[in-house]
Every structure is written in structure tokens, then in C-alpha cells.
Design goal:
Blueprint (H helix, E strand, L loop, with lengths): L2 H14 L2 H6 L1 H9 L6 E4 L4 E5 L2 H10 L4 E3 L7 H4 L8 H14 L2 H24 L4 E3 H18 L7 H20 L13 H21 L5 H5 L3 H4 L2 H31 L1 H14 L8 H4 L3 H13 L6 E5 L3 E3 L2 E3 L4 E4 L1 H4 L46 H18 E5 L10 E2 L3 E2 L6 E6 L8
């Protein structure tokens, strides 16, 4: 390296700190710096100080005990062009009003109705997959399209067909999510201000989602009906912002978790058989999955919990210190960025026996916060505190149903190598491996006729 190159490299690191290393390999970076740490780790992601938190006491302090001293992270402001003032990005009265209104849509009775519609979508998909018996399947494409339709059914109580409309929403969601993942760690997202191809694609994707949401809002049901009273105070943007937030956040995170779940089952026939026994013992005579059954499948739900431990879709989230604080003996100055990382938290050897092993049994009996389990804040796939994911119950139910459908209907063969060799992308949410994950689905027995 020449003297000039060394000076340029030194100047870059003075300005950007750890940001280049983090952006080059986000997952590897947080593993190297966070696993084993029992206190905040000082970083510098750009011009201001930052701290990586990956231990239970830190999560508890920032998200619960002293939550008023922390606001939404500046990093998540990058989501505003897509989400506007939706619940992921908003603060203050606007967030509180939307959160309170949305709770009605997630009450047990309303959630059950939406889940019934989503389970019909799942049954239809099972039938279509059976018609392609023995075909190779790209999990990311399958799960993305499936969970998009399930989320629309569960939240908006709308049934999308499997044609152009569903594909348009799915493609728009993928483009928007990809743009956010690629731009999240840039100091400035120039695509928002310059007429670049990526910028045009991002804006077109947002416009397509707005068009679809406008159609759903003409006769709002489910989640949108619960939010409709807020239009008088906050204007029609409240429907647009919250609907796009729920749609994109709901489908992409569930789709990614579904990929890891299906591939784990493909790699572990013993687990598939273990789950199959449980599901088949509890299925009613007509063989149909129903919302009530999903709460009576402890093994299947334990599998979902283990998937979300090792592959949390929300693998990081950010806060900004609004006041000076002390976390686990480390002084946190006002204005510092806080990067909370469930990916590293869920792999802490001080909390989990054999933390890299895929073992759903760890969530049976005492569970993650039982007397023999890890700290209560060692497992937070949906966050914690007042801003914990409002859709956690829905996502868990959808993934439980997906696992039950897969093990009772198909034999699954992994085609992309060992599970441990599948390296996710660390974007705005956890992504599937760049090379994809492929499986072969073979029908176990003739399917019953579905609606």
C-alpha cells in the first residue's frame, strides 16, 4: 500500500470508524464484537459514538427499565420514505394512538377471523405444491409470495388470488426491502435525491404499494377498520403509513423465518417426524388446521421459537440515547447510537447450552425464562417493552401453521447443503442466503380437497 493509500485509508477510518467493516459483513461483525460481551461494546458507526448491546441486562435497561431515556434510532429514519410515520418509525402521540387502535385488530376474536382466512390461503398453497410433486422449490420465492397473501388475509381480511395483483404487491415489497437493505448503512442515500435507476425502482415500488393499499382502504376491514377512526385527526396518511408498515414488516419477516423453518425441517427428518406425530394426533377428522389447534401444538411452537432464536428476522434494531445513562457499568452519553442485536444475544454461551445447536427441546418444559432456562431478556425475537412487535402472536401462529402443513403433507429434501452452511444476509431485516435455499417437496399422501 502506498503512502497516499495509507493516508486515504486512515482518513476514511477517522471519518467512518467501524462503519466500513460493519457494512461489509454485518452478521460477522456483531458476532465478533458481541458474542461473549456482558456489557455494551463501544463502536463508531460514522461520525458519532455508538454501542453494541448483546447481553440480557442491556436489553432490559434500554427497552424496559429506562426506556424513556432512549428514542428511535437515527438508522431507522432511513425507513421513513417507505413507512412514513408508521408504528416502526413514529414516536409520541401519533405512535401511541396508532398502537392503541391497532390492539383491537389483534384481539383474540378478530385475530382468529383473520387467521382462518390465512389458513385457507395456506391450504390452497399446499394443494398447488402437491400438483408439482417432486419439484425443486426456491424457498425465498415460495415463502415470500405465500406470506404476502397470508398477511393480506389475516390483517386486511382480503383474499388475493395467486395472479397479477398478488405478484405486483410481492414484487414491490421485495424491491423496497432490497433498497432499504442496500442503503441502510450508507451515510447518505443518494438514490433518494438523484435520478438513479435504483431510486426510480424504489419510488415505483412505493407507488405500487400505495395503489394497492388505497384499494383495500375503500372498504376497510380488520386492521384498517381499527385504524380508520384516526383519519379524522391525522389524515388519510395514517392508513397509508400503517398499512404499508404492517404489510412489508409482516410479510418479509415471516417469509424469511419460514425459509429457515422449512430448511431446518429438510435437514432434520427426525424433527419432522417428531412434529408430525403431534400434529396428526390433534388434527380433527376433516384434517383442517384451525386457529384453536395452533395453540395446542407445543412441539411445533417450540420449533418456531428455536427458528426465531437462531434466525431472528429482526436481527438488530436501533435506539438513540436522549440522556446520559449507565448500562452494565458503561457510561452511555446523550446522543449515542445504540445497536441492540438479538442475533448475538441469542447466541450468548452464558445464556444458552450449546447455543449454535438447533434444538427445539430447549423451549419445552421450563422454556426460555423458566427456573432452569436463561435470563428473561435473553430471548427477544419480537423486541421487548412497549414497542415490542404488535404482530408477534400472528407471526407465531402463521409459522406454526406452516410447520404443521409441511410435516403432515410433504417429505422435504434439502438441496443447498447443510443448514449451518447457509449464511444469511444482514440487511434491514435478516435475509435469506444470496444463493438461495432450495428444497424438493414430495407429497406424503393424497391431500384432502381444499376450499
Amino acid at each position: 500500500m502506498t503512502i497516499l493509500a495509507r493516508l486515504r485509508d486512515r482518513a476514511q477510518r477517522t471519518l467512518l470508524g467501524d462503519l466500513p467493516d460493519f457494512a461489509a459483513d454485518p452478521i460477522g461483525f456483531v458476532e465478533r464484537r458481541g458474542i461473549g460481551a456482558q456489557a455494551p461494546v463501544a463502536l463508531r458507526l460514522g461520525p458519532k459514538p455508538a454501542f453494541l448491546i448483546s447481553h440480557p441486562a442491556g436489553f432490559q435497561r434500554v427497552l424496559v427499565e429506562n426506556r424513556d431515556a432512549y428514542g428511535k434510532g437515527a438508522e431507522q429514519a432511513r425507513l421513513r420514505p417507505l413507512f412514513g410515520d408508521g408504528m416502526v418509525t413514529a414516536t409520541g402521540p401519533r405512535w401511541e394512538a396508532a398502537r392503541q387502535a391497532a390492539k383491537a385488530a389483534f384481539s383474540q376474536s378478530r385475530l382468529n377471523h383473520g387467521l382462518e382466512l390465512a389458513l385457507c390461503v395456506l391450504a390452497q398453497q399446499a394443494g398447488r405444491l402437491a400438483q408439482a410433486d417432486g419439484a425443486e422449490i426456491d424457498l425465498h420465492g415460495l415463502m415470500g409470495r405465500l406470506t404476502m397473501r397470508m398477511v393480506v388475509a389475516a390483517l386486511f381480511h382480503e383474499r388475493l388470488d395467486n395472479g397479477a395483483s398478488a405478484d405486483a404487491i410481492y414484487q414491490a415489497g421485495c424491491v423496497a426491502h432490497r433498497h432499504l437493505s442496500l442503503s441502510m448503512w450508507r451515510l447518505v442515500d443518494l438514490d433518494l435525491y438523484l435520478p438513479t435507476r435504483q431510486g426510480r425502482s424504489f419510488r415505483a415500488a412505493i407507488a405500487e404499494m400505495e395503489r394497492q393499499i388505497e384499494g383495500f382502504a375503500q372498504a376497510p376491514k380488520g386492521f384498517l377498520a381499527a385504524l380508520h377512526p384516526l383519519v379524522a385527526e391525522y389524515g388519510p396518511a395514517v392508513m397509508r403509513d400503517e398499512a404499508i408498515t404492517a404489510l412489508v414488516a409482516g410479510f418479509e419477516t415471516t417469509a424469511t423465518a419460514g425459509c429457515w423453518l422449512a430448511y431446518a425441517l429438510a435437514q432434520r427428518p427426525d424433527l419432522a417426524a417428531w412434529l408430525r406425530q403431534e400434529v396428526e394426533e390433534r388434527l380433527p377428522a376433516d384434517g383442517e388446521l384451525r386457529p384453536g389447534l395452533l395453540r395446542d401444538l407445543p412441539r411445533t411452537r417450540a420449533l418456531v421459537q428455536e427458528v426465531l432464536r437462531l434466525y431472528p428476522s429482526a436481527w438488530w434494531f436501533a435506539r438513540t440515547a436522549l440522556a446520559d445513562d449507565v448500562v452494565s457499568g458503561v457510561r452511555i452519553p446523550k446522543g449515542a447510537s445504540i445497536l441492540l442485536c438479538p442475533w448475538a444475544l441469542h447466541r450468548q454461551p452464558a445464556q444458552w447450552d450449546d447455543p449454535l445447536a438447533f434444538n427445539p427441546g430447549r423451549f419445552l418444559e421450563d422454556g426460555p425464562s423458566g427456573k432452569n432456562g436463561p435470563d428473561k431478556f435473553a430471548y427477544v425475537p419480537f423486541g421487548a417493552g412497549p414497542r415490542a412487535c404488535i404482530g408477534a402472536q400472528l407471526a407465531t401462529a402463521e409459522l406454526t401453521a406452516l410447520a404443521a402443513m409441511l410435516v403432515t403433507t410433504f417429505d422435504i429434501e434439502a438441496l443447498s447443503g447443510p443448514l449451518a452452511a447457509q449464511i444469511p444476509e444482514g440487511g434491514v431485516t435478516l435475509g435469506a442466503p444470496r444463493a438461495g435455499m432450495r428444497v424438493r417437496l414430495s407429497v406424503r399422501a393424497p391431500l384432502r380437497k381444499v376450499a
